Amino acid sequence: MRSWTTRAILSVAALLTLAGTVPADRRGTAYGVFNTGYGVFWFAGSALMGYLYDVSISSLVAFSIAAQLVSIPIIAVVRRGREASG
């Protein structure tokens, strides 16, 4: 249950960030692109993790750790951009 709550909060936070950075006349398109990408990558990640689970739990753990480590610089860049703009 907790992971669903976390996902909901992160989703809302991402949509609020879009609302604050995208002009009102482009917001619908931005939401559509965001939700499409979110869904596609969620599906792809889930499928890959399911495959890795079948192949090797160690591979699944390594992929999970690598994905989280890759996200750190992305978050830093986004944060730096937000601080610079506002």
Topology:
Blueprint: H1 2-21, H2 27-55, H3 57-85
Helix pairs in contact: 2-3
For the record, the count of structural domains works out to 1
Ranges with pLDDT <50 over ≥5 residues?
A: none
Average pLDDT number: 84
Q: What string, H for helix and E for strand, traces the elements in order?
A: HHH
What's the main sheet like? none
Indicate the percent of residues in helices.
over 70%
Percent strand = under 5%
- Molecular shape: globular
So how many helices?
3
For the secondary structure, the number of strands is 0
Provide an overview of this structure.
The chain has 86 residues and is mainly alpha-helical. The chain has helices spanning 2-21, 27-55, 57-85. 91% of the residues lie in helices and 0% in strands. It is built from three helices and no strands. It has one domain (2-85).
